[in-house]
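Lab notebook: predicted structure, single chain.

Context: the supervisor wants predicted structures on file for every construct in the current expression panel, including those that have not yet been purified. This is the next one on the list. No modifications to the sequence; it matches the entry in the shared construct table.
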Amino acid sequence: MRERKKNTTFAFRITSEPMKRKNRKKWWLAVALVAAIGVGIYQLPLKKYTSTLKEEIATFGNDSTFAYKRFEHIFDNKKAVCRVTADYPVSGPSHLKDAIKGVLYDLLGQEGNIEEEDIPTAFSNNPELANKQLKLYVENVGMSLTDEVTGLREKIDDDDFRNDMTFEWAVDFTVNCETPKYVTYNVSWLTYRGGLHELAYDSGITFRKADGVLMSWDDVLADEHYMQDIIKSGLKKYFNVTSDEELLTQLTLCEDFEHLPLPDAPIFEKDSLAFIYQFYEISAWGMGQPKFKVAYEDLAPQMKSEALELARQ
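Prediction complete. Output recorded below exactly as produced.
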């Protein structure tokens, strides 16, 4: 953690001139008052809250136009940090915009400590108003986390609970890849409230532009018969091993290769499908989040024709 720096400096000028008795008492009172104010200012929580709006527009053809603005808000008062970055849809088919906003709402709802009424139930179609809604959410979460960590600091006298500990909540919902047929978002959240490490989720999702459908494995795979070999090959590359025996030592939460799970969702990227596993899904937290990519041409025998058509540029 960064050490908090003093944000106020006081300088006193001491002279050798004799001071009259009637002014001496006033001088000491002034010194005491300034010192008290200085201590009070130093002890106040240093609040920092910044908000920025960055705009990025991506347009692909007349029939599949999709544009978004990037909303980025950060709350940071050295006790709690809340940050949200979201690419907000501002033009395109209504079903696509509604689907994207729905996922954003679900992401914000992952923060269980915030009151439900503080989560926008329906983001405005007006980007400026939606941005204000998001800013209010970030500030509410930040203050809620501040109250939580402050209460724990006051109640817990434990070396394991550091007095400089900062609680954190973060969301990233930004465009990863876009074509005239689909748009893929990065989807991640992180929360930390003490302990050895944070809890985190990091993945991606793909929206079909034609109807706003959120792509699932059922939409992609026609034949899962050979997927185990594909997954095993990708994991070997991630863990930098060559044999099945070596790989199994890395997959501490898997007993065998018969039932290797698919990740949460297929993630469409430019030339390949991305596979991302979460912490504790197939291996221990220390192993990270196993991830790899498989070229569409290598997956073609297992993919449905509609999914292959979607993937083609």
